[in-house]
Model the fold of this input.
Amino acid sequence: MFMHVFTYRLKCLLRDYQSIFWTLLFPLIMATFFNMAFSNLNSAEAFNPINVAVVNNEEYLQDGSFKTALEKASTGDGRLFNLSVVSAEEADQMLRDNIIDGYIIAGRPIKLVVSKSGLNQNIIKSFIDNYIHTVSVFGTILSKAPGKLQDLLNDINNRVNYVKEVSTTSAEPDNIILYFYSLIAMSCFYGGFLGMREVSDIQANISPVAARINTAPVHKLKTYLYSSAASIIIHLAEMYILLAYLIFILKVDFGSKTAYVLLTTFIGSIAGFSFGAFISALVKKSEGLKVGIIISVTMLCCFLAGMMNQDMKYVISKNAPVLSYLNPVNLLTDAFYSLYYYDTYTRFFTNIVMLAAFIAVFCSGTYLIIRRRKYASL
Amino acid sequence: MVVNVRNLVKRYGDLLAIDHLSFSIKEGEIFGLLGPNGSGKTTAINCILSLLKYDKGEIEIFGQPMRPDAYDIKRNIGIVMQNVAVYDELTVYQNIDYFCGLYVSDKGTRKKLVKEAIDFVGLGEFTKFYPKKLSGGLLRRLNIACGIAHKPRLIILDEPTVAVDPQSRNRILEGILELNRQGATIIYTSHYMDEVEQICSRIMIIDKGREIATGTKDELKAMISLGEKITVESYSITENQISEIGNLPGVTSVEYKNNILKIKSGKGTNNLETILDYIRKENIHFGRIYSEMPTLNDVFLEITGKELRD
Done:
């Protein structure tokens, strides 16, 4: 009996294109849009070297210390400048063509030519000011107290940093990733559509098919469990496809704890399914109203979990922390982020236990409502 | 007895949907439940199937009390709901196989039964069709096939011909007679009196959840005082002639409206010849003249004072 109900349910679900769209294609499309919208945000925050030119004149060639300082600031991964050594005419042309943010003319004084003011121009100017200041300090000490020169050089070489950066994690903080995690949580809760249908198809007072099944010589809860198994398998497959798309195609970082990521997705999928089943059992109205309630509640939970605005998650945590624990979408999002960010599992397991409690409440509620075998009206 | 219902009472709040209904159905009968829409036919069926809670009464099927977990009884019941109950995502074949599989687990037996059901309802050309591609009549036939494929001893058909084209309706009615010939006991609910007259061996007329009358169609017609009904299409009858027709022996009422003269006679009276003689003698011009015996609608009308279709 299990295989009979299970295989036919699989066929039904795989041919329910509307459901497939909302539970699989829609999240894939959303993930793609998220990727297009957010992929440049992190890179925009990174510092890019400033394009600058220096005029290759006699003064520049003779001022060895300035030349060295400029070359040092223009080498390595963390370099400040992309330096071009060019003639005055070329530098002028590059500035007009916006290839460089400014150009430097060595000499006394050192001149900076820019076409507009801005952050990059200020940085170049600060660099030059700093160089002039340092040269001036050296000149003053050399002329007034030449004996102290060695002390100065020692001080420069033995700078002590009194602030030490200690990380509790090996991962970099990443706010953008929260959008993707909340998208997975939303997709998990769209599994509620499948849960809704399972309950509708077993409640004789909701659908004619259910009435027919209730007249068959099979316990209705068994039929429900068998066909729910098919729904959960389908939803899990959809969720793992989404996960694979995020990890392998969009390169979203889920950290290194793959088994826990899969476990979280599994728990989320069950939570979404049981949520939809509970709503369907509770609301004795049309399917349209049930779909409306599932979408509204899911989107509200997603909003509070920071899917539309990541600051919302922190506003809730700060002002109404209880809401964070009463929002299953937030628990799911937070579980993924805990796996990504923290090296310990305390926060992750707190979220998972809370989600399991939600599943228990949804399943118990659904059972208490659908267990009856006769109806007051059909 | 295949079905035995005693003193069944079902209330929806203040509304008494089934009012102390009692009836028994013998093996091999086609038992018709006839009544207007809202008379309680479907409610009674749902109570019999243990889908609905009821306030009072006893229901036995195959001599055993009917309960939701009476799986041995359910195994021998086939139900054809008023609303089409099939999965849109499964083909005709798959739908029949799925519902048959809830009763019959052996694949080989099921394959044979499904084929027989498909042949029985004439859906052989449509086995790979999805329900949305079927016409209303074919969909109703699929609905029937899903209910009877497992060869039940008792088949309950709740208004199976609603919104069905005449060709499919005839096929369905012939099919029900064939199922009965094969040994199934049938409960057939309808508000179409001609269908019930055509196929049912015994009929219960119900209204407002109450039994109005039960018997064979002849027994039911014998319960009323109405005999023959004669209809004359004519545009030239005077008030005096109408009055004289009313005074003819055996005539109980005369009504002339929209050039149609309707003459009703008492039970056991045959007035056609007398009326024709009078028409010839008075030289009344007429288009058509025809005679009818009482219908179940007349039975319903005489007992309740309203038409079945009201």
In short: The two ends of chain B are 34 Å apart (CA to CA). The domain at 225-293 of chain B is CATH 3.30.70.100 (Alpha-Beta Plaits). Chain B has a mean pLDDT of 89.
